[in-house]
Amino acid sequence: xxxxxxxxxxxxxxxxxxxxxxxxxxxxxxxxxxxxxxxxxxxxxxxxxxxxxxxxxxxxxxxxxxxxxxxxxxxxxxxxxxxxxxxxxxxxxxxxxxxxxxxxxxxxxxxxxxxxxxxxxxxxxxxxxxxxxxxxxxxxxxxxxxxxxxxxxxxxxxxxxxxxxxxxxxxxxxxxxxxxxxxxxxxxxxxxxxxxxxxxxxxxxxxxxxxxxxxxxxxxxxxxxxxxxxxxxxxxxxxxx
Length: 241
Prior knowledge:
Elements: E1 3-6, H1 23-35, E2 40-43, H2 56-69, E3 74-78, H3 81-84, H4 87-96, E4 103-107, H5 113-123, E5 126-131, H6 134-143, E6 151-155, H7 161-178, E7 184-187, H8 193-202, E8 206-209, H9 226-239
Parallel strand pairs: 1-2, 1-8, 2-3, 3-4, 4-5, 5-6, 6-7, 7-8
């Protein structure tokens, strides 16, 4: 049961003044989040132009900076199809990485997910299987990858809370029926971030917060940055023990 911090995502610079978009900023911010209680970091590497990238020129400086700033901390990256916008470029980028992340998040809604997962396994990179719908969970079951992934990431985009609960419950039901008992990290987005943090704490599941998912604190105020969001989530987990 951990708190992971997702420090930037696909957000643009105007989302928050403290959004870290280059290796030095990510390293500085990551260290502050670890100090605030984050057990892991999830990042979207950016190229020199500030755009998301899986290329060696973006990934290596990012990973090296984070490794220096946060020794011993597990670091994951996104493999979202939109980043390279081409399956072959995505696979070639993964094959060419130098400084490897500990794990990568793969969205099961994306067509090339099986190939991407296979490529990551060849490189020895753990897989966080991203499930945003019941269909995603059913696909993971069909692919028979569920007992080999590092963990299952249940990520809910629905903003109406009853609908968000229903999707999350439906995903878990599929996994339970299939006997896929892997570690689960549960998180919402924007309006549902904190309800899902509380749900994860009550159920002894892991969760994540950070500017990728939203910038509001539990009381609705805009957070000063990722470290403040992390500290708020850690406080909820500690209070629930």
